Amino acid sequence: MTLGPVMLDIAGTALDEADRKRLCHPQVGGVILFSRNYQNPDQLAQLCQEIHALRDPRLVVAVDHEGGRVQRFRDGFQAIPAMGHLGDLYDDEPQQAIHCAETFAWVMASELLNYGVDLSFAPVLDVANPISSVIGDRAFHKNPETVCHLANAWIRGMRRAGMEAVGKHFPGHGSVEGDSHHVMPFDRRSFAEIEALDLIPFRRVIATHLTGIMMAHVIYEQLDQRAAGYSGYWIETVLRGQLEFEGVVFSDDLSMSGAESVGGYAERARASLDAGCDILLVCNNPDGADEVLQSLQGYSSPTTQIRMIRLHGQPAEPGLFESRQWQNACNELSVFNHRLGLASSGDLFEQ
Predict the structure, then answer these.
(1) What's the number of domains the chain is made of?
(2) Do 333 and 78 contact (CB within 8 A), yes or no?
(3) How confident is the model at residue 257, as a pLDDT?
(4) I need a surface site. Which of 26, 53, 112, 313 has the fewest CB within 10 A?
(5) Could you tell me which of 7, 56, 33, 2 has the C-alpha nearest to residue 115?
(6) Which CATH number characterizes residue 177's domain?
(7) Does residue 53 sit within a domain?
(8) How far apart are CA 194 and CA 126, in angstroms?
(9) Residue 137: helix, strand or coil by DSSP?
(10) DSSP element (H, E) containing 26
(11) Which of 88, 181, 209, 224 is catalytic?
(12) For the stretch 11-36, what's the b/e string if a residue is b when 16 or more beta carbons lie within 10 angstroms of its beta carbon?
């Protein structure tokens, strides 16, 4: 059985019969986990093992585990700081910030891989701007060159652990006020303005190494009246053509308010695929997920298949948590968090 283009969520901390049936649908290629799917590390490992055992090749298990507000697994996991804190450090000690970025990314990815998670949707490549509260300190910095330096370090750390990286949200979500989880944001800037700021990190990081990119549910109305995830202009002309990106293109969640502009779930799925997306995220709406799967009966993309196989994570090193490398890295992370007053703060996270 091949991997399909749809990535779904599941209801709880273990698979039920409805989950198993849905995940065995030929158009499913992966699972995205949320906080509700996590109790403790042992439960997570068992859940990932069960998901992986369903299919061959195995489904890709992913999570949003950026750090800061967006870290789905809490108790029993290392607390990863928001990326904006690394940007603050970069202003004073750039080499130390780069070292920390690579080290903390290695911790994040190693820990997830150890329990069977293949992929974290990171790093955020958006440029920080006070106008965007939904991005905020999820972004490394307001200077795109600084974003490039820290993002490349973050990706080195992920890859050293055995995990590929997915940058988001193309072509840039940082300069719009609206939160696309709840509204459709509009960006009224010209291409020249976007290229001179938001596209710099994407262009530079793609040239270094990036396996996946997640699209933004934003309409850049001077360029296209469709949101970027439905836009052949942004995906095929700019991302694939001008930036020469050859990796996996993810839609953002098709259940978000910013995804509603083209109609129902079947229309959203088709519009995303027609624009050039490889993988469709459909979360928190089982009926919508079923509608998407039904609408894609018979769909096949050999190119997507080749791209998706690269997303499988590598097994964690045996004895990871007893290794000196792990202990030293976690000590650095603990010192960094302590200085920020984040050592045990539940405020680090959002659901």
Answers:
(1) 1
(2) yes
(3) 64
(4) 53
(5) 33
(6) 3.20.20.300
(7) no
(8) 11
(9) helix
(10) none
(11) 181
(12) eeeebeeebeebbebbbbbbbbbeee
DSSP element (H, E) containing 342: none
Q: Residue 226: which domain range?
A: 79-294+315-340
In a domain? residue 182: yes
Cβ neighbours of 335 (radius 10 Å): 12
pLDDT digits (tens, 9 = 90+) for 168-219: 999 999 888 655 555 678 999 999 999 999 999 999 999 999 999 999 989 9
Looking at the domain assignment, is residue 307 inside a domain? Answer: no
Alpha helices in 38-116 (DSSP H): 41-53, 83-92, 94-114
Residue type, 261: S
Which value, to the nearest 10 degrees, does the dihedral of the CA atoms of residues 270, 273, 279, 285 take? Answer: -20
CA nearest 150: which of 107, 206, 94, 203? 94
Q: What are the tokens at 28?
A: 């499913």
Do β-strands 70-71 and 65-67 pair in parallel, antiparallel, or remain unpaired? antiparallel
Give the pLDDT score at 175. 81
Summarised one tens digit per residue, pLDDT across range 48-86 is 999 999 999 999 999 999 999 999 999 999 999 999 999
List the one residue out of 208, 232, 76 whose CA is nearest residue 149. 208
Amino acid in the structure at residue 194? I
Report the SS3 class of residue 188.
coil
Q: CA 22 from chain center: how many Å?
A: 22
Q: Choosing from 252, 253, 278, 312, which is the catalytic residue? A: 252
Amino acid at 143: N
Cβ atoms < 10 Å from Cβ of 349? 16
pLDDT tens profile 234-247: 999 999 999 999 99
Report pLDDT digits (tens) over 283-325.
999 999 999 999 999 898 888 888 888 999 999 889 999 999 9
Using a 10 angstrom Cβ sphere, with 0-12 exposed, 13-18 middle and 19 or more buried, the burial of residue 119 is buried
pLDDT on residue 176: 83
Residue 140 DSSP label:
S
